[in-house]
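Consider this pair:
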Amino acid sequence: ERSRLGVFLAFRYPVAVPGVTVANFLRSALNARRRALNPEDKGMPIPEFRKMLKEKMATLKMDQSFAGRYLNDGFSGGEKKRAEILQMATLKPEIAILDETDSGLDIDALRIVAEGVNALSGPELGVLVITHYQRLLNYIKPDFVHIMLDGRIVESGGPDLALHLEEQGYDWVREKYEEI
């Protein structure tokens, strides 16, 4: 339903779907999205889908055998996150919400995932990145940074706000918030 509306949500802990390959999942999701946009759409032909998927996987530095594996079943943390970025690349949403995409990633996987996000974001795709750590923002340069406390945005700024938060911690935010 979210995909049909043009929204992509990447989870902190993506669920495994044994028995459903990455390729079958992506083709089904893509065709459902296409039909939501145009009910007359018959779906992407398999050869065209395979070519597109191969190109997207190469961009994300994924082995082609990945497409035949069951979705997130036995995947490492980095593989799960790359699979989500592959989903995002395939489905072409208008907005993507990435909830702690950096969770469980080693430095190489973090860099590859960030490169994928950077390649996809732009005028056609807005990306909301939720993170607790500056390290992801070393690779994905935000336009805006917002700090949430108790479910409310209490501070907003540019990339320098994240650096300040990394240096100072949350105490100054809590103190300021308590004054309001």
Notes: The mean pLDDT is 90. The first strand starts at residue 7 and ends at 10.
